[in-house]
């Protein structure tokens, strides 16, 4: 049995149009399926918690995938993805075709892989957990109306870039204490810490280009001691992962991360706000089956 979870509003309505295309394919196959539409934030978690057999197929973006993962993580049910969001960073990292028919075909072919997830308290995150500047940007993006009027543009990336500049205006870096496995380090003037299971966030920014998602390790990117001007200059390089050699950027790896900070830093996971510092992040190896 295939259980579709469709977020009609993902990707500014792409979710609905992709579902209509998939429905046409389903009409000519003999597949046993049912469909659920999400009606409000976190509905996808409620729906996926109730499914206890078959395969869940998400038609949505990273936010919907995040919600589904948090519903199915204990059930061992495999998840397929037909990308319909603005960013689609999880699908990108797993080389899932962006074309809906091809993605569906690949799900039906059943090539399964197991991936790691990051865990903060009772929340599981598939892609990147961002602390500080990133968290504030995610909060601004989610609150922003720009995604709506940008829909004829490149919605995910544009609304992200606009929010980056809004937050940049009065963002104040913090001093942090970061414990990675057994080693603790104090770092001054920290803009952000990205703890990545997979490389991308914000619609294709390769913040941690070497994150593998199946090796049991996070790759971390810490941006510290940078002026605003340096930050602006370095920012475009992130789309291609070129920022990693900057002297104010430290790339690290680890499995268990603890961060406390001199002032509150907002935390997002997969682009959804999940809390603030202090936080503990654990690696959960092979926690998720993806078809
Ligand atoms: N019916 C609904 N009305 C409003 N919001 C919804 C509804 N169903 C789900 N949501 C919310 O929509 C949000 C955005 O979904 P999603 O992240 O999948 O799309 P996106 O933002 O376009 O894509 P991406 O995260 O890949 O950029 C999610 O946080 C989810 O909670």
From TrEMBL:
GO terms for biological process: phospholipid biosynthetic process. The keyword Phosphoprotein does not apply. Coiled coil: none annotated. This is Diacylglycerol kinase family lipid kinase. It comes from the Bacteria. Gene3D superfamilies: 2.60.200.40, Probable inorganic polyphosphate/atp-NAD kinase, domain 1 (3.40.50.10330). SMART domains: DAGKc. One of its GO terms (cellular component) is plasma membrane. The lineage of its organism: Bacteria, Bacillati, Bacillota, Bacilli, Bacillales.
């Amino acid at each position: 049995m295939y259980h579709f979870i469709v977020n009609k509003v993902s990707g500014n309505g792409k979710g609905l149009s992709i579902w209509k295309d998939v429905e046409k394919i389903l009409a000519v196959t003999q597949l046993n399926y049912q469909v659920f539409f999400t009606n409000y934030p976190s509905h996808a978690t409620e729906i996926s918690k109730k499914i206890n057999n078959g395969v869940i197929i998400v038609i949505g973006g990273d936010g919907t995938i995040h919600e589904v993962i948090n519903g199915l993580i204990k059930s061992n049910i495999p998840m397929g993805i037909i990308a319909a969001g603005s960013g689609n960073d999880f699908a990108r990292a797993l080389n899932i075709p962006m074309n809906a028919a091809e993605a569906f075909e690949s799900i039906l072919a059943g090539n399964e892989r197991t991936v790691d997830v990051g865990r903060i308290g009772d929340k599981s995150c598939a892609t990147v957990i961002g602390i500080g500047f990133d968290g504030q940007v995610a909060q601004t993006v989610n609150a922003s109306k720009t995604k709506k009027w940008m829909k004829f543009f490149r919605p995910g990336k544009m609304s992200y870039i606009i929010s980056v500049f809004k937050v940049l205006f009065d963002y104040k870096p913090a001093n942090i204490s970061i414990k990675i496995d057994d080693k603790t380090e104090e770092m001054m003037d920290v803009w952000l810490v990205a703890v990545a299971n997979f490389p991308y966030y914000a619609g294709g920014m390769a913040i941690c280009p070497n994150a593998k998602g199946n090796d049991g390790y996070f790759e971390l990117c810490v941006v510290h001691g940078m002026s605003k001007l340096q930050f602006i200059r370095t920012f475009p390089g992130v789309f291609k992962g070129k920022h990693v050699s900057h002297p104010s950027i430290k790339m690290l790896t680890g499995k268990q991360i603890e961060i406390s900070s001199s002032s509150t830093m907002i935390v997002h996971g997969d682009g959804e706000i999940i809390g603030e510092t202090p936080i503990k992040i654990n690696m959960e190896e092979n926690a998720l089956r993806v078809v």
